What we know:
Elements: E1 9-11, E2 15-18, E3 23-27, E4 32-36, H1 38-47, H2 53-63, H3 71-80, E5 84-87, E6 90-91, E7 103-105, H4 109-115, H5 118-137, H6 154-182, E8 189-194, E9 197-202, H7 216-239, H8 245-264, H9 273-282, H10 287-295, H11 314-350, H12 361-394
Antiparallel strand pairs: 1-5, 2-3, 3-4, 5-6, 7-8, 8-9
Amino acid sequence: MELTPDSRMKLRAITIHEKRKNYTVEEPESGDFYEMPVVCVEAIQLLGENRALGDIEQLLQSKYPSEEVDMIAFANQLLELGLVQEVDGRQIESSRRIDDTGQRLMISDKVGKLFFNPFSLALYAVLFVAVIAIFVIRPDLFPHYRDFFVSDWMLVNSVVWLVMSLLVVLFHELGHFLAVRAEGLSSRLGVGHRLFLVVFETDMNAVWRLPARRRYVPYLGGICFDTVLLFAALMVRLLSGDSLQWLSAVMGTVAFYIFITIVYQCLFFMKTDLYYVIENALGTYNLMENSRAWLSRYLPFLKEDKSVVYGDEEKVVKGYACFYVAGLAVSLLLFAVYFFPQFIFAFALSLPKLGEPFTSAAFWDGVFFMAEAGLMGGLLLFSWIRKYAPLQRSG
Length: 395
């Protein structure tokens, strides 16, 4: 659609929330939020007065002489976001699709408040300290890469790992979901998929309606529930006797997975729960993207984005870049201490089985692991090629 300075547009129903630095614009139908500076918010308000784009641009340029105001470009962005209802009296059909796939779970906010209130938050903190104390007192319970192996059979190990990981992830997402509901906000715990894998997803967009100080609990709700489950797994391991070694082994797998999940939150080059906590505390958004762009000046494997303008946030971006690099270091440490030794042990366990008779269960267990390792390696290689090949062509 060709826009001109004389064009006028009517936006869809939106809600504007004032934040510490900028504003967030909510589109209630989809539940999407967009961060915008004050000049954009005023432009939206002037559009609501049925003013022409050219007139709005002149008004804003005189009011904000240091800003570069381009109303036609801004109006095109609003069109792309699907926020425009009509242009010059012509109805605009939104091309945006609202994702409502998967099964959804709705729970009363009263249930959320049972799990997230001042008393429960204090309890979660106590349990977190208790977990650290258990590791100090009983270092033998500290997660080890061999905790993955509850059996000499790789098929059994993989099934236990798959079931336990799905349950742990569900419990984690339930923590986020109940924390959001405790604030009286609408939220959904959905069941979706990534390729052929089942995933659980919590809709947390509504937390943008909250003041910054009240967003921390929804962001940390998953870690709170992780702490409860980790404490329970460690207590089972402490209390289980010799007759329940299988239960202790399974709980070791659970503790290992939760520990990795919590450490994963420190990978600040990804948008983890702790990333959103830091972003919220600083009141600066797009921290990861901006820090990555700044680091690209010094790290050759990062593609440099020269279009980023930091303004008065450059000091914050530089500070977060340290967390970004630390997250990379943590990921390498996880690989060296857990994942690589785990793979080597599994390979050493499975390779001799290939020498067993073709009709034996041991032979097929070894084949299963080799096929599983090949599939995972192939998917990883495919993802790398898809991510980095376009960069090499453009370079």
